[in-house]
Design brief:
- The chain has 189 residues and is mainly alpha-helical.
- The chain is 69% helix and 4% strand.
- It has one domain.
- A hairpin with a 3-residue loop joins strand 1 and strand 2.
- Helix 2 packs parallel to helix 5 and helix 4 packs antiparallel against helix 5.
């Protein structure tokens, strides 16, 4: 649940083992699902290119599926990215600050995480009406008669991913806040 130092690209990944909570299992399962979607999109694009070049028969709807899949992948993997400390961030200031002044540094990082909680919470809240409308109106992507698929699964993944990312940010904020208010001086384990 804590931030990890992931700056040494040549080092082996830390042996974190299996998740220790049901929340961790859910987040990591969604991350794995995102990886499966990446593999499926890769195979779909390769098949489309092969069929297009060999038989002049492209697969209908590939562009729409790939565009939708990018959104799905991001929101399936966002909570795990946060959980495992791999979210892109500017370490130029915060990490040295935490090293020099652990408690104020952790308090500042908790504040950043609270802002992340709010941003992801607003995203989930704002996406809920779009999910509801897509479900009720049976919205679809594509060209009718050629290739269509429903919009609601993508909207559901956005709501779920943003909600879980908000929870993960909150957990990180609470961990850093606890450390800054008298807990441990160093990095959380």
């Amino acid at each position: 649940m804590s931030y990890e130092a992931n700056t040494d690209l040549n080092a082996a990944p830390a042996a974190s083992g299996a998740p220790r909570s049901p929340f961790g299992w859910v987040v990591d399962a969604l991350n794995a699902a995102g990886s499966v979607v990446i593999a499926a999109v890769m195979l779909l694009m390769c098949a489309d290119v092969a069929l297009r070049n060999a038989l002049n028969k492209p697969i209908d709807g590939v562009a729409e599926l790939v565009a939708t899949s990018i959104i799905v992948i991001v929101f399936l993997q966002l909570p795990a990215t946060l959980r495992h400390g791999r979210m892109a961030r500017a370490d130029l200031f915060i990490d040295p600050f935490i090293q020099r002044r652990p408690k104020p540094g952790r308090a500042l990082r908790a504040l950043f995480s609270l802002v992340g909680t709010a941003a992801c919470g607003v995203l989930a809240w704002a996406s809920w009406p779009m999910l509801s409308r897509a479900w009720e109106d049976q919205e679809f992507f594509g060209i009718e008669g050629v290739f269509t698929f429903p919009v609601w699964p993508m909207r559901a993944v956005v709501v779920l991913g943003a909600s879980l990312a908000a929870v993960q940010y909150l957990l990180l904020a609470l961990e850093d806040l606890g450390a800054s208010l008298g807990g441990t001086e160093g990095q959380a384990q």
